[in-house]
Amino acid sequence: MNDSPSFHMTPDEFRQAGRAVVDWIADYYERIESYPVLSQVKPGEVRSMLPPDPPQEGETFDAILADVDRIVMPGVTHWQSPNFFAYFPANASGPAILGDLLSSGLGVQGMIWATSPACTEVETHVLDWVVKMLDLPEKFLSSGDGGGVIQDSASGATLCSMLAARERITEFASNERGADGRLIAYASSQGHSSIEKAAMIAGIGRGNLRIIDVDEKYAMRPDRLQEQIEADLAQGLVPFYVAATVGTTSSNALDPLPAIGEICRKYGLWLHVDGAMSGTAALCPEFRYIHEGLELADSYAFNPHKWMFTNFDCDCFFVADRKTLIKTLSILPEYLRNKATESGAVIDYRDWHVPLGRRFRSLKLWFVIRHYGLEGLRYHVRRHVKIAQEFVRWVEGDADFELAAPAPLNVACFRHRGGDAVNQAIMDRVNAGGEMFLTHTKLDDRLTLRMSIAQTNTERRHVEKAWRLIREAAAAVTAEQA
Ligand SMILES: *Cc1c(COP(=O)(O)O)cnc(C)c1O
């Protein structure tokens, strides 16, 4: 029982419990490979172990932590396991976890500069660093007309870019009267689902999101984009926004930004570039070609919370013209009026995204960048790409398998030649084994296996083992069918 008279955890108790939690996390990382990567619990199993009613009296911290082991851990899928190859990486790292802890400890609300100046200024400064780290166009620096902000997610960034684009084209009339149903947005068939969601939320309507065909590399076809824009104009509609993707979720395709950007310029459309996972690759000069044409974009976002070792949530969103974004989202209630804001000398980030309140998220990013340094970050990105390219060669060298899409970076889409049922059975089999976890996509309507190779601690030996497990599963599945 917790018998503190004030019910609070005293600083001394916090010290003790805090050390226990840090030790718990360190132990977890030491033994992470011993857990089945994909949680094996059945629906409802976790809840069935929780008491029906909340406790009347406080409990000891030891009891709480013990239940994490007993109740929570069996229901955890281990995203931080080096044998995690599913979806995309959601990388954590020591410095990021500690930066996040410090942010919790400070517990500040950074909605405007005045509510905690450091929360704003560290963020602005670190995001300017990021522009230099990825060699992004200078117009995204806060020293000019642009600037960066940390968003909760790439989805949030896409939504904000679409809202700003909507206001730019309607000269801020949509904020007053709502969108009029004639605004048309464009994305490729491989664009992320968050683009469709943004069209719904922004009042554009998903029926007004045009899905543009892709080429044989699953990249957006600029000729088709232009044709569609012309067709929409001919009908009296108002094209206003294109979301291009650098590294699609499904197959890691790279949309051709120079051609798409030229079309956006020609017709006056806002170009948003979504580099959620793959943007991180631009840390390395040899991969910066993925951003070729980015100087034509109005906004850009990528997620350090994917490949850049900064735990969720941390999306970096950059705009070339911050005034439009701020004018789109700013509302100033009386109780937040203050001298600093009125002087115009400060940034108030509440005007850069949907929520008002905001955590001190730049601490974890700052910690990561300082801990690894550019060289440390590049070391890991290069390592991941190198191992992924080796995996690609193993697939290409095996007569039973084929590569399903180009693999420019760290994602390999491949399939067994035996067809959808065989591929599904291979995937189910390796995932049930617990030694690895991979997921699938559909390309040209065919089930396609997908290895995303970018977990913080993934090494060559983990990928080698994964390939062995995949081939063993294939042999077992085809033998069963014979
Ligand atoms: C993962 C991903 C997203 C969604 O990211 P969130 O930060 O979870 O919203 C969007 N676009 C692409 C290309 C992605 O890979």
Kindly describe this structure:
The chain has 482 residues and is an alpha/beta fold. It has a domain of 252 residues: Aspartate Aminotransferase, domain 2. Helices cover 43% and strands 12% of the residues. The protein has 16 helices and 11 strands. It is globular and about 60 Å long. The N and C termini lie far apart (61 Å). Pyridoxal-5'-phosphate (PLP) binds next to helix 6. Pyridoxal-5'-phosphate binds next to helix 6.
Structure at a glance:
The protein has 482 residues and is an alpha/beta fold. The chain contains 16 helices and 11 strands.
The CATH topology of the domain at 108-359 comes to Aspartate Aminotransferase, domain 2
Bound molecules: pyridoxal-5'-phosphate
Overall 3D geometry?
A: globular
Structural class: alpha/beta
At the first level of CATH, the class of the domain at 108-359 is: Alpha Beta
Poorly predicted ranges (pLDDT <50, ≥5 residues)?
A: none
- How confident is the prediction overall: mean pLDDT? 96
Intertermini distance: 61 Å
